[in-house]
Amino acid sequence: SIKIIGGKSLDEIERVYAYKNNKLIFNGYCDCQRTTADERGFETYIYARSSACLLVDNDAFAYTYNRPSAQSLFDAYAKPFGFSYKLDDICTFKKYEVSSGSSLYGAINLLVSTITGNSIRINADNEIFMLKPSENILSLNDFSVISAKSIINRSEPISAVNYKKEFSYLYDCHTYSQLAEKLGFSRQRYVNLAALPSWQRNYKISKMLKDSFKDYKRLEITLKGYVESELLQRFDYSGKLGDFNDYLLFEKVYSIDENAEHTKLILRKNIDIMVIFCYTFSLLFNSSGGRQTYLSYYVSPFFKHKNILQHLSGFFILKINKFE
């Protein structure tokens, strides 16, 4: 956002560019322009989003792709808007489902992140590239720190996701976070994923759990001057609030006026939530009286014993249904 104070009102603004030391650091479109007039003159407030909004604001048509690549989706969705492809050669030999309501950005990003585990980003030069956590860790103590804030938010983390993988009324597949259990969270979700290919299902579930932890531990640091560090740069910090190790930069807010300039960094703890997938294991056998009993168990893929039944005792017994 930009606030402009002057002697006259501004015409309608479409494009917004920002430079720092002759380097383009923002390239976007004006979403909102608000002008106020009083005895001092005119004050105009401008809110703009980066050029990525072109892909976020447009829907992709629902379609099932066979063996798509990131390049093919880019050519269909992003190239017509003038973006440049700077991703690696990313493809799959499986089917990929673009659901109704997905944005152009979301359709490309989901394919890339499902295959690689990393998201895409669009820079000020309209280049689409992969956003990955940095290999190195910087210390925030090497910067001029103005203030620090630590936030612990326990209201959002999910402990388990129950889902359908077939067209049935049962939510008989289950994924949970060992970390959530360890921290005392008990928050479940039920989702119908029957329409998705299995590899997209697994990714969506893992992402649901991981995303629920994104604001669990947050660090907000305000620094003097302009900070050039890119998103997902890893940081450590030690101060009056304690020691904070391996935090990822997720948002950067740069402010400047006639008095000073500073940068606010919003960081999130880089957490391994320890996802465990559990599947339904079923047995059908004859019992006394000619009845058949159907037993279903949750089975973790980590149980790889030859005689799995002897290890099922006490492990997530789901139900016992009897059929005549």
The assembly state of the depicted protein chains is: single chain
Gyration radius, to the nearest Å? 25 Å
Low-confidence runs of at least 5 consecutive residues: 281-288, 290-324
What percent of residues are in strands? over 45%
Helix content: 10-25%
- Give the overall average pLDDT: 85
Element-level helix/strand string: EEEEHEHEEHEEEEEEHEHEEEEEEE
Distance between the termini: 68 Å
The strands making up the biggest β-sheet line up spatially as 10-16-17-18-15-11
Query: How many strand segments?
Result: 21
What can you see in these coordinates?
This protein is mainly β and 324 residues long. It has helices at 53-56, 70-77, 104-116, 178-183, 198-212; strands at residues 2-6, 15-20, 23-38, 41-50, 63-66, 84-85, 95-98, 119-122, 127-131, 137-139, 145-152, 160-164, 173-177, 188-192, 217-224, 234-239, 242-256, 261-269, 275-286, 292-299, 317-323. The chain has a 6-stranded mixed β-sheet, with no helix packed on it. Strands 14-12-13-19-20-21 form a 6-stranded mixed β-sheet. Strands 1-4-3-2 form a 4-stranded antiparallel β-sheet, with no helix packed on it. A hairpin with a 5-residue loop joins strand 19 and strand 20. The longest helix has 15 residues, at 198-212. 19% of the residues are buried. Residues 281-288 and 290-324 have low confidence and may be disordered.
